[in-house]
């Protein structure tokens, strides 16, 4: 069955551009992002991998380990890495799984046969330090992902893991947040000493607590 939010992320061992990796060992106590690409030497994927390489310091800052996947052989990945550096101006600085036997793709349901029965779609999985799946996004091969959005979601996931809040539409780090419904007004007074506005009893807006 396909993975769902809150499920335990399956562990695996895989060949990557940085050697053999055991997923759980690679993650350690960090957050993780596992994302798939349909195929090596394809244009949209080339731009995505260049962008993730440029954003690597942002993932590091958030304690997120980055792991990509494509269903081609390791030799192809290495040749493709040169193209990525040449055309995107960024060197591949995170491991890329070679999943020619579809072991990891099948484990994470990254092949959607009605889209293409051999290539992975553009899947994104965010894994928490507890190894639970926190986010799943699936894009078709023809649409490159927005990794700024993925960083934004990681900011929200990390904030809401630590504080009793939710983040509203288009929220970004530093914006006001919403006090979780489970928190009574009485408890909110101690949890959110900066106070809140409540245009409705169920909509309590407070400054981001860790800023
Ligand atoms: C691409 O990355 O450009 C791509 C890959 C597979 C199918 C379509 C586009």
Concise overview:
This protein has about 210 residues and is of the alpha+beta class. About 30% of the residues lie in helices and about 25% in strands.
List the helices and strands and how they pair.
Layout (H helix, E strand, L loop, with lengths): L12 E4 L2 E4 H5 L3 E7 L5 H19 L2 E7 L3 H15 L7 E3 L4 H5 L14 E6 L5 E7 L7 H16 L2 E2 L10 E3 L5 H7 L5 E4 L2 E4 L5
Helix pairs in contact: 2-3
Bound molecules: benzoic acid (BEZ).
List keywords for this structure.
Glutaredoxin, 32% helix, 211 residues, single chain, five-stranded mixed beta sheet, Antioxidant, Horf6, Chain A, domain 2, alpha+beta, binds benzoic acid
**How far from one another are the termini?**
40 Å
Q: What is the CATH-assigned architecture of the largest domain?
A: 3-Layer(aba) Sandwich
Low-pLDDT runs of 5+ residues are none
CATH fourth-tier homologous superfamily of the largest domain: Glutaredoxin
CATH class of the largest domain: Alpha Beta
Commentary on this structure:
There is one protein chain. The chain has 211 residues and is α+β, with helices and mostly antiparallel strands. It has two domains: 13-145, Glutaredoxin; 163-206, Antioxidant, Horf6, Chain A, domain 2. Helix content is 32%, strand content 24%. It has helices spanning 23-27, 43-61, 74-88, 103-107, 147-162, 185-191, and strands at residues 13-16, 19-22, 31-37, 64-70, 96-98, 122-127, 133-139, 165-166, 177-179, 197-200, 203-206. It has a five-stranded mixed sheet, covered by helices on one side. Strand 4 (64-70), helix 3 and strand 5 form a beta-alpha-beta unit. Helix 2 (43-61) packs across helix 3. The protein is elongated and about 60 Å long. The termini are far apart. The model has no long low-confidence stretch (mean pLDDT 97).
């Amino acid at each position: 069955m396909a993975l769902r939010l809150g499920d335990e992320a399956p562990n695996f061992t895989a060949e990557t551009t940085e050697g053999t990796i055991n997923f759980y060992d690679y993650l350690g106590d960090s957050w993780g992002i596992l994302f798939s690409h349909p195929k090596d030497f394809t244009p949209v994927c080339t731009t995505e991998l260049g962008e993730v390489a440029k954003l690597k310091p942002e993932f590091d800052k958030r304690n997120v380990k980055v792991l990509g996947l494509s269903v081609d052989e390791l030799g192809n990945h290495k040749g493709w890495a040169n193209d990525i550096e040449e055309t995107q101006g960024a060197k591949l600085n995170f491991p890329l799984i070679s999943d020619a036997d579809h072991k990891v793709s099948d484990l994470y349901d990254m092949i959607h046969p009605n889209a293409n029965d051999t290539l992975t779609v553009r899947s994104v999985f965010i894994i928490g330090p507890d190894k639970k799946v926190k986010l799943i996004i699936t894009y078709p091969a023809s649409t490159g992902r927005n990794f700024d959005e993925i960083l934004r979601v990681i900011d929200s996931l990390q904030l809401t893991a630590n504080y009793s809040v939710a983040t509203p539409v288009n929220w970004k780090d530093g914006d006001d947040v919403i006090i979780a419904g489970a928190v009574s007004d009485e408890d909110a007074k101690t949890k959110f000493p900066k106070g809140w506005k409540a245009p409705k009893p169920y909509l309590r807006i407070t400054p981001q607590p860790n800023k």
